[in-house]
Amino acid sequence: MTGPIIDRWYNLCAWSSILIPSGLFFFKCSGYLWENVSMWLPVLTGLLLLSTIFFLLLTSCTDPGILPRRELRVAVPGLEEEVVASVGTSCPISVDPVTSELVCELTEQQQVQGFRWCTTCMVVRPPRTSHCNDCNNCVMTFDHHCPFVANCVGQRNYGYFSAFLVSTCCLGIAMVIGLAFYVSDYTESSHGHLSFSSDPVLFVVLLAIALPTVLLLLGVLGLTVFHAWLACRGRTTKEVFGRHSPVVAGAPLRSYVRGASLVHARSRVSFPSTVV
Ligand SMILES: [Zn+2]
Ligand SMILES: [Zn+2]
């Protein structure tokens, strides 16, 4: 989770939208569906809930493809070589005599190929890498920053994010089917329509399941179709909507190779380190 503190509220909203309706569904409908419809409907819904939680955790808690900042590359032995190998090029760094800032003069060929110098991270960005202002990091094959997962979505967690979307869609569809069976059986057995006046508690509970489930399903379904379209075209969200991110001629389409993480959170660092 690399997002700012405000993302915690969006993340909490995502978890609540998944766990509260599904918890009520299992509490109220699963036993009835198991006995009267099919045991496989609640079992399948349970498996889909587990996979949704699993992929949400993986999307939120894995490194999206961060390019380590210069301070980290200097502090961790061998990291600079790893970053250069991953970026695919290097650039001699010098100190600007006027501003005293570190600068890097990229060659014209490097610029045409899509390499850029990030003045915040002090790193050469390979094509399709962007600096996320929410996380304040450069992320490889940057797609977008998602506050609901409190993380960037990029090269290393895009697959998990896509699986989370598909899983959430399937969970929503399974819950809507389960609810439809439950309500139609109730209507048949009680010979009347379910309404607030006939059974207020049941009506409110089913509404608390159905309303967020349908809203979440519609939203996530739209996102899933959009990302399926992006995957077919080999583009990222940033490239489709971003004003300053033209697709570089000759740059490879979306890379599905995750690659090793360059964030060695458990590495021992030498301190103090000289940052020049
Ligand atoms: Zn950056
Ligand atoms: Zn971000």
From TrEMBL:
Protein name according to UniProt: Palmitoyltransferase
Domain notes: The DHHC domain is required for palmitoyltransferase activity.
Organism this protein belongs to: Polarella glacialis (Dinoflagellate)
Membrane topology reported for the UniProt record: Multi-pass membrane protein
Gene Ontology annotations of biological process type: protein targeting to membrane
EC annotation from Swiss-Prot or TrEMBL: 2.3.1.225
Entry's Gene Ontology cellular component terms: endoplasmic reticulum; Golgi apparatus
UniProt catalytic activity: L-cysteinyl-[protein] + hexadecanoyl-CoA = S-hexadecanoyl-L-cysteinyl-[protein] + CoA
Places the protein is found: Endomembrane system
